């Protein structure tokens, strides 16, 4: 068994904690940054607690001077959504990966949650959040944060779940040999192993949140639009007023914001997570971060940062394995009994699913005829065709590019902020160009609005492929060179199988994101001009605009059905193939 990869993957057994607390020059350098961040958090948090009554419009200005304030407000919502998404990911994905009975429920539920459009979440939850905090802006803020959470959590959860299912067998055997409890195994093996890929998917999730920030900051309640101060509401107002100059300022502000959180958050995280890679190539240049270097050299800050790790380290023995790990485990009394339990569990799940489906049909059929229901399924076929074509094109373009970038760490580090900006670029800002081109050249709306569906979701594929290519073991690359694998044969035998598990994670999220994006892409507004393509997305968008809840429910239900069919018949089979035949052991 190779000891070097194991040593790098499992967390160290001890955390240094010395009583020396005298600050050094690096503490003085980092202190203004820490105090500034705390002040911004306090100021932004206080703005969320201002009094507010539904019906009183919040003024939004297109003056570029207001953009830093709007950027801060959007930042805080994104940060809160990311924190909630991370907690949800660690709990939900771990339970789904550990229990095959929970997996049969939780993964289909995750498919459904991923397929529900953000407009659907907002239409269902915003009234409840406002009722929780009457007369206060916090209710609307919570609704916006929840909407951002729904645009971030599913991608991270699928990524962590896939990592849990693809842990190399030698690492699992080592964990069993050391008699690690479930708690210790999670913190020493499973979370460190998944951390590099999880961080890359966190980047993509944040970018996905920027893509939907317009919808989350301009909320419709009972036919009335509530706009929260933020970069999303600024963009929505600029589009409504056809102000190209304001759109240009918004693009610059977003680019500056993405550079800020890349340099101050994600780049230090990527450099820190490099120690969790399963193996390192001699002479390979590790990712670096000046901020991380300063934080590691700061003496007082280092002690403060080490305290949670010290407490965590002391908690591990509390959850130690009760058995000695040597005694045989009692065998199951009856394998046939477990088989009957499995069948009963499957029947129960089927009954519950049919019951929920029946209630939805009763609700929809009460106000909508069967002919329209059939028509909506046909609209779903039109959108499905667009999704299939766009995912295939995006895969053909970004899979080879992602492998090429991932095999070159310097290129990957330089391309990271660029890809984040492109992924965060809201499709709404492309609407003016698309509308003008379609009208000027008399182009088909059915075809030329389709690229807007994949504009923000194609990056899920690129991010995950880059992450998978960066994790290809050096031994495999050397073996491929020794065997003389070149050209297409090298791609077929090494690169494509190696990145296939992470590609599937990116493709399933990109597919779900494309279905969501169809709502804002099949019905394009620019000022008083509206272009509508035939599809399920435009049906949901039009129903939402009119406040027709039965038709909103019908459209969301049909979209859930299509997304679940895609996931079960295509992506889930690919997941099993990656888990059973393409694991790197």
In words, what does this structure look like?
This protein is 74% helix and 3% strand. With 585 residues, the chain is an all-alpha fold. It has one domain: Orthogonal Bundle (MetI-like fold), CATH 1.10.3720. A two-stranded antiparallel sheet has the order 1-2. A two-stranded antiparallel sheet has the order 3-4. Helix 6 runs antiparallel to helix 22 (487-521), helix 15 runs parallel beside helix 20 (458-470) and helix 16 packs antiparallel against helix 20. The chain is globular, with a radius of gyration of 25 Å. Mean pLDDT is 78; it is low at 1-19 and 323-334.
For the biggest sheet, the summary is:
2 strands, antiparallel
What is the CATH homology-level superfamily? Answer: MetI-like
Strand order in the sheet with the most strands: 1-2
Radius of gyration: 25 Å
The top-level CATH class is Mainly Alpha
Helical fraction: over 70%
Number of domains: 1
């Amino acid at each position: 068994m190779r000891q070097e990869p194991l040593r790098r993957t499992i967390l160290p057994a001890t955390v240094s904690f010395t009583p020396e607390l005298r600050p050094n020059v690096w503490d003085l350098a980092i202190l203004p940054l820490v105090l500034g961040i705390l002040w911004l958090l306090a100021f932004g948090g206080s703005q969320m607690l201002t009094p507010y009554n539904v019906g009183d419009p919040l003024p939004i200005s297109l003056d570029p001077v207001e953009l830093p304030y709007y950027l801060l407000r959007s930042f805080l919502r994104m940060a809160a959504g990311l924190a909630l998404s991370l907690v949800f990911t660690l709990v939900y994905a771990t339970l789904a990966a550990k229990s095959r009975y929970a997996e049969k429920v939780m993964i289909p539920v995750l498919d459904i949650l991923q397929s529900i459009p953000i407009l659907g979440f907002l239409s269902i939850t915003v009234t409840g959040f406002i009722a929780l905090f009457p007369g206060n802006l916090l209710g609307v803020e919570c609704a916006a944060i929840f909407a951002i959470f729904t645009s971030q959590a599913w991608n991270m959860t699928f990524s962590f779940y896939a990592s849990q299912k693809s842990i190399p067998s030698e690492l699992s055997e080592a964990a069993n040999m050391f008699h690690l409890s479930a708690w210790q195994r999670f913190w020493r093996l499973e979370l460190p192993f998944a951390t590099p890929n999880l961080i890359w998917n966190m980047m993509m999730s944040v970018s996905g949140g920027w893509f939907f920030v317009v919808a989350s900051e301009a909320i419709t309640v009972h036919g009335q639009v509530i706009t929260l101060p933020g970069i999303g509401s600024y963009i929505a107002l600029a589009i409504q007023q056809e102000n190209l100059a304001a759109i240009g300022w918004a693009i610059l502000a977003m680019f500056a914001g993405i550079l800020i959180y890349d340099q101050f958050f994600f780049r230090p995280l990527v450099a820190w997570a490099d120690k969790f890679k399963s193996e390192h190539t001699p002479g390979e240049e590790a990712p670096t971060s000046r901020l991380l270097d300063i934080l590691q050299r700061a003496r007082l800050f280092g002690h403060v940062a080490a305290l949670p790790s010290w407490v965590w380290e002391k908690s591990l023995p509390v959850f130690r394995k009760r058995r000695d790990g040597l005694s045989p485990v009692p065998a199951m009394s009856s394998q046939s009994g477990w088989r009957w339990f499995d069948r009963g569990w499957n029947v129960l799940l089927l009954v519950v699913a049919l019951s929920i489906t029946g209630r939805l049909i009763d609700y929809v059929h009460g106000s909508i005829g069967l002919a329209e229901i059939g028509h909506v399924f046909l609209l779903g076929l039109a959108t499905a065709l667009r999704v299939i074509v766009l995912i295939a094109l995006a895969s053909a373009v970004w899979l080879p590019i992602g492998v090429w970038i991932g095999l070159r760490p310097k290129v990957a580090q330089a391309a990271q902020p660029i890809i984040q900006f492109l992924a965060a670029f809201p499709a709404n800002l492309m609407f003016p160009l698309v509308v003008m081109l379609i009208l000027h050249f008399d182009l088909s709306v059915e075809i030329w609005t389709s690229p807007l569906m994949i504009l923000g979701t194609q990056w899920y594929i690129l991010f995950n492929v880059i992450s998978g290519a960066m994790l290809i073991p050096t031994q495999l690359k050397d073996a491929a060179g020794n065997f003389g694998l070149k050209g297409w044969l090298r791609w077929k035998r090494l690169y494509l199988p190696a990145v296939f598990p992470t590609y599937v994670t990116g493709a399933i999220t990109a597919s779900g994101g494309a279905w969501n994006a169809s709502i804002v892409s099949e019905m394009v507004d620019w000022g008083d001009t509206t272009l509508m393509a035939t599809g399920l997305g435009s049906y949901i968008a039009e129903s939402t605009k009119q406040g027709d809840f039965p038709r909103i429910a019908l459209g969301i239900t049909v979209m859930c059905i299509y997304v679940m069919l895609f996931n079960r018949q295509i992506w889930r089979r690919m997941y099993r193939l990656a888990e059973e035949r393409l694991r790197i052991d």
